[in-house]
Specification:
mainly alpha, two-stranded antiparallel sheet
């Protein structure tokens, strides 16, 4: 379906790494039909189909995904138009679009966190594992040279790999802290937990890393750099071709973000019903959390697939990378802060009638600690030569899937 989605501005990656734009003679409107059809299905499922059951969940899920497809196409159009006017590196533009794709996920997680804080926390962490597996799988679909190597965008190698290493350190450190707190029964008793102060501190520190990374990304890769700099990403400049007006770009971006909220909430409700049905059928709690994490990341996956089938490999790779790096430094800290706020406001009960929020148990600790090997192998595969060969691709996929299996089967 994504193959039929056409954009009026297409980003192409040349052999020497330059990013160029060309205008399609036919401006597709499939995204509009997807949006209208998806909204109609979501409305029908919400107001016409009762009681809540499998038919309600299926129609809601399909409609939500169609809305997410349409919103992702609108955001890509906005990114294309803005990148064309500002002659911006496509990787940087794609990263900005990837940030906006987290909105449906955060909306859905907000409802989940308020209802089941522990499951919501696990789902947030599992989104990273799912995103890492998607990155490994997508790297196998990239164009390759005669030696079987896929060249990665320089900004990904120059900056995102730093975030992979930082994420590995964060998950290892946080996981070990949780293990030590459990082993030595910190704060007394056997029901050890992370309290509101812990979550505020962890969240603020991780968000600071994201802020620094975005600032460095814009300063290093969005403009013209010194030719002798290894960080330079050469741009093919085309004058007198501004494309979309700023009003059109803004309209696509704002409307795309607004409808993504509707689609994300619909997909989240579908996932919630699905997890409830799976639990009733006897499946493990972690299995339901993995399913829920898949739907929470639906927006990013749709943007990856849509951009890939349009030949915009830099935007697709930026979103594949952003689906990983934005979890530990944007989604996870946001979830931590939300949990702390919900606890202090009384939306969710504190553990042991104190200030505890997240229990330190096998599920929560394993989800955090197993993020370390995933980030480590991803950092090594990308950082060494800026390319991904078939051995690295198969190794990444194998490790990511093995970690997800261990979490589901024995978490």
């Amino acid at each position: 379906m994504a193959g039929g989605l056409k954009s009026d501005a297409r980003l192409a990656v040349t052999i020497d790494g330059r990013f160029s734009m060309s205008t399609d003679s036919h401006e597709g409107r499939q995204w509009l039909w997807l949006l209208l059809s998806g909204l109609a299905l979501v409305g029908a499922a919400s107001f016409l189909i009762q009681p809540i059951g499998w038919s309600h969940a299926f129609i809601l899920g399909v409609g939500g995904l169609m809305v997410v497809f349409a919103s992702s196409e609108m955001m890509i159009k906005a990114v294309d138009g803005y990148a064309r006017r500002k002659q911006m590196n496509a990787f940087v533009a794609g990263t900005m679009a990837g940030l906006s794709s987290n909105i449906p996920e955060l909306v859905m997680l907000g409802f989940v966190l308020a209802a089941t804080p522990r499951i919501g926390f696990i789902v947030t962490v599992l989104t990273l594992h799912v995103g890492a597996a998607a990155f490994g799988l997508y790297s196998g679909a990239l164009p390759r040279d005669v030696e079987g190597n896929a060249q990665l965008p320089k900004p990904l190698v120059g900056l995102s790999t730093d975030l992979y290493a930082a994420a590995a350190g964060v998950f290892f450190s946080l996981g070990m802290i949780m293990l030590l707190m459990k082993a030595f029964e910190v704060r007394g008793g056997v029901n050890v937990s992370l309290n509101t102060i812990d979550l505020y501190v962890f969240g603020a520190v991780l968000l600071a890393i994201q802020a620094v990374a975005i600032t460095r990304l814009i300063k290093r890769f969005s403009g013209t750099h010194r030719p002798e700099s290894e960080e330079d990403v050469p741009l093919e400049v085309r004058r007198h071709e501004l494309g979309m007006s700023m009003a059109t770009i803004l309209a696509f971006g704002v409307v795309g973000l607004l409808v993504s909220l509707i689609g994300g909430e619909a997909v989240g409700e579908f996932a919630g019903i699905l997890v409830e049905k799976l639990a009733a059928a006897g499946y493990s709690e972690m299995f339901g959390a993995v399913i829920l994490s898949l739907f929470s990341a639906a927006g990013a996956f749709v943007m990856i697939g849509t951009a890939h089938f349009q030949g915009k490999y830099s935007i697709a790779m930026a979103n594949a990378s952003g689906a990983i790096t934005q979890v530990p430094f944007l989604v996870l800290p946001a979830a931590m802060i939300l949990l702390a706020v919900f606890t202090q406001l009384g939306v969710i009960p504190a553990l042991d009638n104190a200030s505890g929020v997240i229990p330190i148990d096998l599920h929560t600790t394993s989800a955090i600690l197993l993020g370390f090997p995933s980030m480590l192998i991803l950092w090594k595969a990308v950082q060494d030569d800026g390319k991904v060969n078939w051995v690295e691709t198969s190794t990444m996929v194998a490790i990511f899937l093995l970690v997800i299996y261990l979490l589901v089967a024995h978490g």
